[in-house]
Amino acid sequence: MAEKLAFYLDDIQTRAGKWINLILTSLVLLSSVIFVIETYPIPGELTLILARVNTAILIVFFVEYIIRFWAAEQKINYLFSLYSIIDLIVILPLFIGNFEISYLRLLRWFRILRLLRFVESQVFFDRTEGEDQLIIRRIIFTLFTIVFVYSGLIYQVEHPTNPQAFRTFIDAVYFCVVTMTTVGFGDVTPLSQGGRLLTILMIISGIALIPGQLGALIKELVRNANRVETPCGGCGLSRHDRDAQFCKVCGTLLNSSPLNPSRSPDGES
Fold first, then answer.
1. Which neighbouring-strand residues pair with 229?
2. Which one, 5, 11, 147, 261, has least CB within 10 Å?
3. Are 44 and 124 in contact (CB under 8 A)?
4. Is 191 helix (H, G, I), strand (E, B) or coil?
């Protein structure tokens, strides 16, 4: 039974597997939205409702983790795998939520990392897309994750001691983007030691990661813009390089190429 459930947790071909993955992805996004909403002044009743929804989501994630661990053939290797560590970080607040340990609340912002296992899947995307679309998706997710996690962390650290500057999550996003792009307006500054340490990490990350990621994104967008609509009769991939003779996914001859509509595998017309 556990093996069957674990199969559907990773499967995106069957209807059941696709729906399960869609639900899990939606729960990750919902939990992230809840955390952002909680940074704003909201009525006590809504806070209670959001807390209950968040607890229910954590329980679902905990059950998913138990199923994956139970079905894993090499449990020790799974326990120390990247996805397992991310899942543990996510569900840890379920067991320590009643303890007044403020820094443990930082773990909530790593929940968005659970989307990592869905980024390269075809749950939301066309299965005929090429490698360039996959690369663009990775880059956009990387940039979004860096900004989201850092914004959540700096808000969690600075809001208690500096509530005027870091009032909401949007204030934290503004500070994060300005800091990581090394613009440094100086209108918002951290006061706590933890906030200053995070700022240093933001600057280092911005210098080391942002230019490379943006450069790669622009490069892929330009490459994608130079491709033409040439549907493959084998796998259905629609966009190929202008001089492509065969599909880069399945190797099928592209007879409908606008440059050479009647090519043969030997290049004869």
1. 239
2. 261
3. no
4. coil
Give Cα separations from 157 to 24, 146, 186 (angstroms). Answer: 29, 17, 18
Residue 233: how many CA atoms within 13 Å on its side-chain side? 8
Among the listed residues 225, 230, 16, 251, the one whose alpha carbon sits nearest the alpha carbon of residue 132: 225
d(CA 140, CA 107) in angstroms, rounded, equals 22
* Residues in a beta bridge with 239: 229
Overall average pLDDT of the 111-119 stretch: 72
The per-residue pLDDT for 114 is 74
More confident residue, 244 or 258: 244
What mean pLDDT comes out for the span 112-134? 62
Q: On the CB side of 57, how many CA atoms lie within 13 Å of its CA?
A: 25
Which secondary structure element, helix H or strand E, spans residue 22, and what is its range? Answer: helix 15-37
Q: Does the pLDDT value for residue 174 go beyond 90?
A: yes
Residue 227 binned pLDDT confidence (cut-offs 50, 70, 90):
low
